[in-house]
Design a protein that fits this description.
Radius of gyration: 22 Å
Shape: elongated
Helix content: 55-70%
Number of helices: 16
Distance between the termini: 57 Å
Length: 296
């Protein structure tokens, strides 16, 4: 059996920070503003679409339409569905009341899985954990080529089945929660999932494999360290992050440090890292490279 390896970075961890996941998570899901009729029409073309799945999707949208919101995601949140587990359907007013339990469960499970796969709804990690949606159905219509490639990757490396299955679940949850195309995933998206798990006292099983796989696929740059190495390293402060780039001008270096320290209290750490990267690497070092006299 292959041991899922970690990676040694070719550059410091601060050299290639990812854009904060909140930029994506706070945005409106891709199809969340479309009218119900168009969503039903699109759902008809999904892989595995049936009368049952379409009926479930339609019932959910009809129930959500009674709540305020400019998008289905806002209505989902205003209905109080974002965090509950199995009782999320009750928050909608129990639209399946009076129906056989098995039929109601089947319709609702398929309908919500398709809405997530289409990026109409982006549930919280708490919802994904408690509600336990049909992850296989989400994968059927959310990046199916990637998940097929992931299966080939796990098989070729002989990754232990429990480790691979956990990784599969992690990838499904991260894509469902953040809504970004898989090629736009950044370390901060996965670190967000890790933070959720560790905050509830649980190990993020499968995450190390997913991290290394994304590096193998080239989705994560080679300069990004392995997960275990990244989380084991003490977070550098602003002075350390700025100094890691080797600015030649002490005056500019001090000015940037002062500015970043002013901004530090109002942003989270991932955003702070991105600001350092943009200001120092992409802005000032580019000026120094093209105008050597700028250091004076």
């Amino acid at each position: 059996m292959a041991i899922v390896r970690d990676y040694v970075p070719s550059l410091p961890a601060t050299e290639a920070p990812a854009r904060p996941a909140t930029e994506t998570q706070d945005s409106v899901p891709h199809l969340s503003s479309l009218p119900q009729s168009e969503l039903v029409e699109r759902a008809e073309g999904l892989d595995g679409a049936t009368d049952v799945s379409l009926r479930g999707l339609s019932v959910i949208l009809e129930a959500l339409s009674l709540f305020e919101g400019q998008s289905w995601q806002q209505r989902w949140q205003n209905a109080g569905c974002q965090d509950p587990g199995h009782d999320w359907k009750d928050r909608l007013g129990d639209p399946w009341q009076g129906m056989y339990l098995n039929r109601a469960a089947f319709e609702s499970a398929n309908g919500i899985a398709d809405l997530i796969a289409m990026d109409v709804i982006r549930p919280s990690y708490t919802w994904l954990r408690k509600a336990k949606p049909r992850f296989h159905r989400i994968r059927l219509n959310r990046e199916p080529e990637f998940f097929a490639r992931m299966t080939e990757h796990g098989t070729s490396l002989q990754v232990r089945p429990p480790n691979f299955d956990n990784g599969l679940t992690v990838m499904t949850k991260v894509l469902a929660h953040n809504g970004v195309p898989v090629n736009d995933l950044r370390p901060e998206h996965l670190l967000g999932y890790r933070e959720y798990q560790t905050n509830r006292g649980q190990k993020p099983d499968g995450l190390t494999y997913v991290w290394s796989m994304l590096k193998d696929f080239g989705i994560f740059d080679n300069s990004i360290p392995g997960l275990l190495e990244l989380v084991a390293v003490k977070r550098p402060n602003i002075d350390e992050m700025v100094d890691s780039y080797g600015i030649r001008s002490q005056r500019v270096r001090d000015m940037l440090v002062r500015y970043l320290k002013i901004r530090e209290p109002g942003v989270d750490y991932s955003t702070l890292r991105w600001m350092v990267y943009e200001l120092v690497k992409n802005f000032w070092l580019d000026i120094e490279a093209h105008n050597p006299e700028a250091q004076n």
